[in-house]
Amino acid sequence: NADDLDHATKRPRPELVDRTDYSRWRMRDDHGRHTWQYLEDDEAAKEWPQTYADKYFLGQPLGLPDLPKAKNPLDAVRNGLSFFEKLQLPSGHWGCEYGGPMFLLPCVVISWYVTKTPIPWYYATEIKNYLFARAHPDDGGWGLHIEGETSVFGTVLNYTVLRLVGVDADHPKMVKARATLHSLGGATHAPHWAKWWLAVLGVANWDIVNPVPPELWLLPDWIPFAPWRWWIHIRQVFLPMSYLWSRRWQAEETDTIRSLRKELFVEDWKDIKWAAHRNTIHPRDNYHPKTWLLNLINWLLANIWKPIFRVKPVVDKAEAWALKLIEMENDNTDCLDLATVSGPMNTVCLYAREGPDTYAVRRHKERSHEFLWVKDEGLLANGTNGVQCWDTAFAIQAVMDAGLTEDPRWRPMLLKALEFLDDQQIRENVKDQGICYRQQRKGAWAFSNKDQGYAVSDCVSEALKSVIILQKTPGFPTLIDDQRIFDAIDTLLTYQNPSGSCSSYEPPRAGPWMEMLNAAEVFGRIMVEYEYPECTTAVVTALSLFHKHWPEHRAAEIQRFVDRAVSWIKTNQRPHGGWYGSWGICFTYATMFALESLASIGETYENSSHARRGCEFLLSKQREDGGWSEHYKACETGEYIEHPSGSQVVMTAWALIALMKADYPDPEPIRKGIKLIMDRQQPNGEWLQEAIEGVFNKSCMISYPNYKFTFPMKALGMFAKHYPDDTVV
Ligand code: LAN
A single GO BP annotation from the record (predicted)? Predict the structure, then answer.
């Protein structure tokens, strides 16, 4: 029987069950590496009971008692902490689902399928459940992200995933999704990345994929558009894409693949004019249409260069160098890779070159599990291998802002968090830093963990602040000595851009004009690093805090860095008074950071026109009930847009923090917002999930579930410090 389900699932078809037994899932935290285990064996399940964190992630009842009702904001922080404390994982950090984007699970599942990796029945089952739960209720399709409208990108890829994990094509939900896909034009109307995956899978012909020449990697470094200058995520995706495009590599044909050729297209597969559809795309997916320049380049590459001038020795050299770069990434991340797109793509490249049995392929497959998460709706893929260092830093700061770091009640929790950050500091630069185009990272922290090991300016900063705060609190040990703190500072100081601002992983290596070459269609602001008020503020506040405690170390440079950074923040303010956010939604998020930057040099509502305009902008958006509620569309359009479902706790906390940082003199609006946050707190101390909080590349939203704890607690704590006598209730 040529039915590929055997190799995909190692189980006959009917074993794709309704639902797994949720009492059998456990999250294993191995020094900040997350993997979900399904304990089929009763004995094993008994020996390893579910923790509160497991149950919480899985949406199971925790059975926690009601806490005494908060009589003031500080009580509310304490109640919040006593809940949040239960979610701390054994290694000392806070983890969570990090979903939102709907193109990540397809990367993982297609990479498993084409590398003939067995997909256990409990994974397959929960992948099916997640995708069914997230199908758009009206049309049965999927969008770019969980809150987005149905697109070809989301629908073609997630439909494919469902088929690969064993769902029947005639399942009613599949029939509905397929009808929607066809009404949008079918797979020929998909954006570049989807066409690339379908070509790898052998469902589409490679001619439908716009050129991704690995030869670009051979360009000398001085060339203004050489790939080493691109934003790290796009160049790490371009790398494996270019290798497989060059080889026109395709998976072994299976029944499901043959069937998908019929299901995904409106046209008869044999008659499709592949090359003619390279630029076909549904308007809904075409968020960032390709420029005339890129279209011209693509045409020349496809019609002149490839057939006439593309020569074997150069192709070989380019492919070899691309693989070498992938190997360096293997070494630097122990085969984890930067994130959930490049990781699965690299896995396929290594498999295509070396077959199934090399160490690198096996290790990639093992590590792919670290991108997965199980929740009440099923199994999904996270945007990175977690949010470990980032959320842990904010948790510590929330306690600090409430003035509770010295309270012995929270010491064990905080000590564990400090131990985690100690363990996760990156101690060395990567090998061959210059050759693989990496940024200095010694002394840094990554967003997730040190295995991933990519320093980000604000992740280093938030972690460093948290370490300094705790280590300077009586009763906490000095786990990270001065030299290691200096290492972090030395690395941070490499992050300033000529304008004074900071970017994310690296200072920009080319200008925004590079967006002219953005081929991804579904994302904006992806080709290079930009300047971010969020990252800039984090670095400013970290350097300032450091300078307070070590006034001698590189003092003049720090002073100059901070001055220039805050001046840049001022120039980045929009005429309406707000700042545009790139990593959280949207003006509310970035305005919080910008006002914090201003406050760090003593500029507040009373003495700074920038701070005043920032406050007035936020106040003009406060709702009747005291809350704020910006909608994700603001990230796409660049205009503040209200969320139709009303005030959001996280958004409200951001706005309140901003106003308090700026020392806004009238407590009334702040009080109203604080009351809203307190009213939304549940009797057990938690807050419930509301609308999605984060964003990247303008168009794709991503969840930050721990923000509903850390930011409300920070806002409440700051209020309690600012207005110690105001009980609010
Ligand atoms: C992240 C997550 C964290 C985020 C902050 C630290 C919050 C930000 O201040 C700086 C940028 C950073 C590190 C960031 C960059 C882009 C990421 C890695 C993500 C949003 C998580 C997922 C996303 C990544 C690009 C997803 C894969 C998609 C591609 C387009 C390659």
Answer: triterpenoid biosynthetic process
Q: Terminal CA-to-CA distance of the chain, rounded, Å?
A: 69
**Beta carbon of 237 within 6 Å of any ligand 1 atom:** yes
Distance CA 232, CA 238 (A): 10
Hey, what are 416's tokens? Answer: 């564990």
Write the DSSP symbol of residue 528. Answer: S
Q: Which amino acid is at 163?
A: R
Task: Compute the distance from residue 506 Cα to the ligand 1 centre, in Å.
Answer: 13
Q: How far apart are CA 336 and CA 116, in angstroms?
A: 19
The torsion region of residue 575 among left (phi > 0), alpha (psi -120 to 50) and beta comes to alpha
DSSP state of 706: T
Q: Which of 391, 451, 458, 487 is catalytic?
A: 458
| Distance between Cα 387 and ligand 1 center (Å) | 10
> Is residue 376 classed exposed, middle or buried when 0-12, 13-18 and 19+ CB atoms within 10 A define those classes?
middle
**CA 163, chain centre distance (Å):** 26
| CA 174, chain centre distance (Å) | 29
181 CB-side CA count, 13 A: 29
Protein residue closest via CA to atom 24 of ligand 1? 383
ipTM: 0.95
The beta strands (E) that lie in 244-370 are given as none
Q: Could you confirm whether 458 is annotated as catalytic?
A: yes
* 712, 673 Cβ separation under 8 angstroms: no
CA distance 726 to 537: 29
Cα(224)–Cα(221) distance, rounded to whole angstroms? Answer: 8
Mutation test residue for ligand 1: of 389, 527, 583, the one with most atoms within 8 Å of CB:
583
Cα 112 to Cα 238: distance, rounded to the nearest angstrom: 20
- Are 32 and 419 contacting, i.e. CB atoms less than 8 angstroms apart? no
What's the confidence (pLDDT) of residue 15? 67
* Cα gap 99→382, rounded to integer Å: 5
User: Residues 232, 154: contact at Cβ < 8 Å?
Assistant: no
Instruction: Write down the pLDDT at residue 1.
Output: 39
Name residues whose C-beta falls within 8 Å of residue 624's C-beta, 6 or more positions apart in sequence: none
Measured CA to CA, the distance from residue 344 to residue 348 in angstroms comes to 7
Residue 59: Cβ-neighbour burial (10 angstroms; 0-12, 13-18, 19+): exposed
pLDDT beyond 90 at 110: yes
Q: Residue 507 in contact with residue 434, Cβ under 8 Å?
A: no
Which tens digit of pLDDT belongs to each residue from 419-437?
Answer: 999 999 999 999 999 999 9
* Amino acid in position 111: S
Task: Give the DSSP H or E segment for 27.
Answer: strand 25-30
On whether the CB atoms of residues 87 and 53 are closer than 8 A, the answer is yes
Cβ of residue 534 lying under 6 Å from some atom of ligand 1: yes
d(C-alpha 694, C-alpha 692), whole Å: 6
Q: What is the pLDDT of residue 729?
A: 87
Compute CA distances 531 → 314, 438, 504, 613, 667, whole Å: 36, 19, 8, 21, 33
Instruction: Give pLDDT tens digits for 575-627.
Output: 999 999 999 999 999 999 999 999 999 999 999 999 999 999 999 999 999 99
Q: Please, what is the angle between helix 649-661 and helix 587-600, to 10°?
A: 20
Three-class SS of residue 380? strand
Tracing tokens 């706005």 back to the chain, one arrives at: 655
